[in-house]
Write a structure and sequence with these properties.
- The structure is a single chain.
- The chain is of the alpha/beta class and 821 residues long.
- It has 25 helices and 24 strands.
- A hairpin with a 2-residue loop joins strand 16 (583-585) and strand 17.
- The longest helix is centred in the middle third of the chain and has 28 residues, at 506-533.
Length: 821
């Protein structure tokens, strides 16, 4: 065949078995078919086989494990630009981010001491959270356990007051990251890029007999509960060492050129400049690594080389050559029409070469390396799932046998092997066969828990020795979450799979709005009480007698001055709450509900302030005869046992308003769009309560739960409404309201005929109970229905059972088979 190749004499070569073809159906079958063929060559006596490939890195990842499984020793030469390798990108991100943070830290505003602690002034927060640093910490060269890196990531992402100095301090703490990262960071801050790389390189080259650990998992006390030894990965280790060695070379070259950021030298540049120059140099450095794996007792050794390098081997130096990737896309032949070639030809530096002649010469050299066998491989379908066509060289080889296509080779007696991608399991496993089952089990429904471990679903809260009767400690929002879907409750509340980010979304805005409204109404009440006491009513205490009337304790639509004053108070409290978030108490920030980082965030803060001011206007027309008395009232904390529906209850009631007759309205703020607010937060269907259908739990039950708590804690008060108040946009009011006080509660904003039935509670309605009626009965029957669900929870029932599509919206279990879309 070599004698006839490229001679122009077609069809004069006869197939005798020395040349063969491999036809994998697609890329997923490619490695397995080549591995089988090489194993056949080895069993036939081949001692050295050269595998020429277009991508040596991919070949090592996919083919080397399969050859090792078959007892064949493997070596390779992999070449790649340093900046494009994982370890190269990781180190580049590390030094770039450290340099940027160091530059920011040098001009970052210092906290100002105040009575409560220190007020933080933020600089440019465009770097937060430091994602590229986290990519580095999760890379192999950082030597940081995954669990530790993820904990640090959660801490950084959950702190909107994080400063560049905080991040740099964490990086320099070996217990927070790793000793290598701590040392490398310190060296980098001294302007010593090469020294930083050497600290990360040390674990790869220092062999002290201690196995390297990839993952360590700690418990809450910092004790190691799990550790996993890092598996052997010769290519990854070679690439990591090669990258860090390349960094050392670049750093040395820069130093020889007089470019350094080491402050100990007389002339030095800043760290950002030095890092920028190093990054440019990384793009020009080509890294060559030679990973190898030896198998004990192996009789055959395979070398995987780029096709160009393989063609430079000595003729007849290998028993067989497997020439892979012979498709027109993977092994193209250029046309020589490029700017560089044209310029070199014009200047007479280099003659205008023919790409086809060069490709033919290289292929002929490659084919001559084989003493006994030459195999050509091409996929029939490419990675893009489109038909792949043979390369020019493969076409010319086929022409020697008088064939127009390699698909006809079997007809002339040429050995042809093929393999389909339908054998997915066999193709994926190193051994090329379906693994022997060790154990099997039937997949349980989402949330199904074995009876033997159901006692672990509910555990006593730490530090609550007063709760020893086996009943769970739950909040109203947890109960509501369980009613939406038990598995959602289990995922969010028991496993804690919620988002760790300190965001700037509606949830954070709602938390901030709660705080501002509480401070505003409390200030108005305190001012009114103080004014009355100045008149001589020293014994006045609204907490002892909530029904006592205190003029000026709320803004009303009929008193424009009271509304204006409430606006003024809210504006002051808004700024006070905003400032309070920026106070550091020790090293820890205070409650961060809403810390703006950008102009967009500031715009959202202005919108929120406008919403809350207009909420005062809206509220001035509601709750006629009622005055605010209790704000952010917490219950169920240490030593305070509140029983509800078979569980211990804990939580905070946003507000309770009371009239002169001791009637109470329980109010729960919701920073939600008022559109469809009544549909979501009303307690009944559109037609209202139907005694024939019976009672069914509404979608939202928080205010009803809070209403029952108020009844029990304040038996002198009669709960006549449990409502939700939207603090956003045009605002809205929904929930359960006794018909007797509906006009007073809704005031200037009476519901339409379509929405009123969803909210009004008939005073004579018993909801199937014999001992109560009206709102009392509604609160009792709600507790009874929830008691049944708590019983299911106590039995360990946390199977996925979403109430509706909305229940799945914020569930973290994205692959739940019962997820509603």
């Amino acid at each position: 065949m070599l004698m006839q190749l490229f001679s122009g004499e077609e069809g004069t070569t006869h197939a005798e078995g020395a040349v063969s073809l491999l036809h994998p159906a697609g890329p997923l079958a490619e490695a397995e078919l080549v591995a089988q063929h090489v194993a056949e060559l080895a069993s036939g006596g081949a001692r050295r086989v050269v595998v020429a490939v277009s991508d040596a890195g991919r070949a090592w990842r996919e083919l080397a494990p399969k050859l090792r499984e078959r007892g064949v020793s493997v070596s390779a030469q992999v070449s790649s630009p340093l900046a494009k390798l994982e370890a190269g990108r990781a180190f580049s991100e590390f030094m770039t981010e450290v340099a940027h943070l160091a530059d920011l830290a040098s001009t970052w505003p210092e906290p100002q001491a105040v009575e409560k602690g220190a007020i933080v002034t933020l600089g440019d927060m465009g770097w937060w959270p430091p994602r590229s640093l986290m990519d580095f910490l999760l890379s192999d060269i950082a030597h940081v356990p995954t669990d530790r890196a993820q904990q640090l990531d959660a801490a950084w992402r959950g702190n909107r007051l994080l400063s560049p100095r905080d991040v740099l301090d964490a990086l320099q703490n070996g217990r927070t990251t790793s000793p290598q990262v701590a040392q490398a960071t310190r060296e980098l801050l001294r302007g010593r890029i090469g020294s930083a790389a050497s600290k990360l390189l040390a674990p790869y080259v220092v062999c002290d007999g201690t196995p390297r650990l990839e993952d360590i998992v700690f418990d809450g006390s910092g004790n190691v509960v799990f550790s996993a030894e890092r598996p052997l990965d010769a290519l990854a280790d070679s690439l990591a060492m090669g990258v860090l060695g390349g960094v050392l070379n670049v750093a040395g070259t820069l130093k020889e050129l007089g470019l350094t950021a080491d402050p100990a030298t007389e002339q030095c540049c800043d760290l950002k400049t030095l890092v920028s120059l190093a990054n440019h140099a990384f793009e020009e450095v080509n890294l060559v690594v030679r990973p190898s794996v030896s198998c004990e007792g192996a009789t055959c050794e395979v070398e995987m080389l780029p096709a160009g390098l393989a063609s430079s081997l000595e003729p007849l130096s290998a028993d067989a050559v497997v020439c892979c990737n012979q498709t027109s896309e993977e092994s193209p032949v250029g046309n020589g029409d490029d700017v560089l070639s044209a310029m070199l030809a014009i200047l007479g530096v280099e003659a205008d070469a023919s790409p086809l002649d060069e490709a033919r010469a290289a292929f002929a050299s490659l084919a001559s390396v084989a003493r006994r066998r030459l195999t050509l491989e091409r996929t029939l379908v490419g990675a893009s799932a489109k038909q792949a066509y043979p390369s020019v060289m493969l076409t010319e080889v086929m022409a020697c046998y008088g064939l127009d296509s390699d698909m006809d080779a079997a007809g002339i007696g040429m050995p042809v092997q093929d393999r389909g991608e339908d054998l997915a399991v066999e193709n994926a496993f190193d051994a090329g066969a379906v693994p022997r089952p060790v154990k099997s089990e039937t997949r349980s429904p989402a949330g199904s828990v074995s009876p033997s471990v159901r006692n672990l679903i509910l555990v006593p809260p730490e530090g609550r020795a007063d709760l020893t009767d086996g009943r769970p400690l739950l909040s109203a929002s947890q109960l509501e979450s369980y009613l939406e879907c038990p598995y959602k409750w289990f995922s969010l509340r028991r496993l804690g799979l919620g988002n760790v980010d300190a965001g700037f979304s509606g949830m954070e805005m709602g938390t901030f709005a709660h705080r501002v409204l509480e401070m505003t109404h409390r200030a108005l009440l305190d001012e009114a009480v103080a004014a009355l006491r100045e008149t001589g009513l020293e014994t006045l205490d609204p907490e002892i007698d909530p029904s006592v009337r205190i003029p000026g304790s709320r803004a009303t639509m009929s008193d424009a001055a009271s509304v204006d004053h409430a606006h003024q108070v809210l504006s002051e409290k808004f700024e006070e709450a905003r400032l309070d978030q920026l106070i550091l108490r020790g090293r820890r920030p205070s409650n961060q509900a809403l810390v703006p980082h950008s102009a967009e965030d500031e715009g959202l803060m202005r919108t929120l302030r406008h919403d809350l001011l207009s909420e005062i206007d809206y509220e001035a027309g509601l709750f006629g005869g009622f005055e605010p008395r209790f704000f952010e009232w917490s219950f169920g904390r240490q030593g305070d046992i509140v029983e509800y529906a078979g569980a211990h209850l804990t939580g905070t009631i946003d507000r309770v308003d009371v009239d002169a007759h001791g009637q109470a309205v329980v109010i729960d703020y919701k920073h939600k769009n008022p559109k469809d607010f009544v549909s979501e937060y009303g307690v009944f269907d559109a037609e209202g309560y139907n005694a024939e259908k019976g009672f069914s739990l509404p979608r939202r039950v928080q205010s009803l739960i809070y209403g029952q708590v108020v009844r029990r804690r304040h038996p002198g008060l009669k709960v006549v409404a449990a409502v939700y108040l939207s603090s956003r946009g045009d605002h809205a009011l929904a929930g359960a309201v006794s018909r007797n006080v509906a006009d007073n509660v809704f005031g200037a904003y009476p519901p339409s005929d379509n929405t009123l039935p969803r909210m009004v509670v008939a005073d004579a309605e018993s909801f199937g109970r014999e001992d109560s009626c009206g709102m009392d009965a509604l609160l009792d029957v709600t507790e009874d229905a929830i008691r049944e669900k708590v019983g299911e929870l106590l039995e360990g029932n946390v199977e996925a059972r979403p109430l509706d599509k909305a229940a799945c919206e914020f569930c973290p279990v994205m692959n739940c088979e019962r997820r509603l879309k």
